[in-house]
């Protein structure tokens, strides 16, 4: 039997500061991914997660994809892409269907039909549904929990966290990809993708909030009981820190970004020492000198603001008390030294940094085991999960089809047996009927023969009587008749 080739997937993280194209395949165990191609291109067409310049974004996508393809020689043209933006919102809505199952039992097919119908629920014309995250199910007004399959009932209702985004933002993503000759296989929230690559299953069960701090946005996703309970996007990120350095210190953007990346610290109390830093002057002026502590104060102020916005979002969603596993920070800006201590003080919860996991040690693993690539790696993991789900679905579908064929075959056989039995009965009935008819004919013939014989015998007796005797008998009968009158 010929061995089936491993699937190859491309993930595309379209960020505010960079576009990352990542090509990967499953490793030999099937439990991890092996990164075989990685392309990075600077992005200047996106602001706070939203495409604002089609041409610049198309160029960045082309550059990143071309670089990734060159590293692995895979000419793949379908992508799983992430989406962000402060206008993406979540809301709680319910949807209900009536079960058509004859056994009055909720099946996987009924749940799938509910999801499909819910995805078509009416929403404002300028919005599109990106995700439906089931919160809980109800069967005949009884709590069906998070898995209603197998419960008895005819009415299935679900409560959903419905994630919607502006139609124009989504259309712009598709337009950019069409111009780069790429087809969208899946489009999902960046925060959802990042959660695939950095969160552990036990954290999702106990209660965890992931905050992905990128260049243009900070994205929040919350899991409790392995269910996505809340998502939110804050329109602040690492770019605001760079802008603050640029404004306060009076340096160009490139120098501000370098200072943040190479010397940045966002929690002054945890600094062990404060070296003197220097940046070139503008237009031939003297270099600027300042203490690293001063840079840290600038960064701490803005980072504390971003984290306080995130803390407020969790409190307003009334979900912070459920975060027993605490907070996970990821994204490029989360690499800023001191951020864990600062976040722990603000949230009052345990905080850790989130690095992409489930990456094979082969290929480009050292390059992508970095919070900068959490979204890209998560997009790849999501695409493989859906690929495997589709295989499982097809296997189940094939099993179901085989089962249906077997039932139909048994019915045909039963039908054939039934027809054969009827034909045999008809033949036996016809034989018995013929036999009875023959018996009746024989009896009729015997009776006819007997009657003929008796009649002949009677006639013979009459003929053998003397004529006088016959006359006397006739006379005697007449006499008796007259005597009656």
Distance between the termini: 119 Å
H and E string: EEEEEHEEHEEEHEHHEEEHHEEHEHEHHH
- Overall mean pLDDT stands at 86
Overall helicity: 40-55%
Specify the CATH architecture of the domain at 199-369.
2-Layer Sandwich
Strand order of the largest sheet: 3-2-1-6-11
Structural class: alpha+beta
CATH superfamily of the domain at 199-369, by name, is ATPase, nucleotide binding domain
Total count of helical runs of at least 4 residues: 12
What does the overall shape look like?
A: elongated
Low-confidence stretches: none
Largest sheet: 5 strands, mixed
In summary, what is this structure?
With 485 residues, the protein is an alpha+beta fold.
Describe, in plain words, how this protein is organized in 3D.
This protein is an alpha+beta fold. It has a domain at 199-369: ATPase, nucleotide binding domain (Nucleotidyltransferase, domain 5). 47% of the residues lie in helices and 24% in strands. It is built from twelve helices and 18 strands. The chain has helices at residues 54-72, 108-118, 167-179, 190-198, 201-206, 238-249, 253-263, 292-316, 339-347, 365-368, 374-464, 467-484, and strands spanning 9-14, 18-26, 33-42, 46-47, 50-51, 78-83, 89-98, 127-139, 142-145, 155-166, 183-189, 208-213, 218-224, 227-234, 276-279, 288-291, 327-330, 351-353. It has a five-stranded mixed sheet with strand order 3-2-1-6-11, sandwiched between helices. Strands 14-13-12-17-18 form a five-stranded mixed sheet, sandwiched between helices. Helix 1 packs across helix 3 and helix 6 packs antiparallel against helix 8 (292-316). The longest helix is centred in the last third of the chain and has 91 residues, at 374-464. The model has no long low-confidence stretch (mean pLDDT 86).
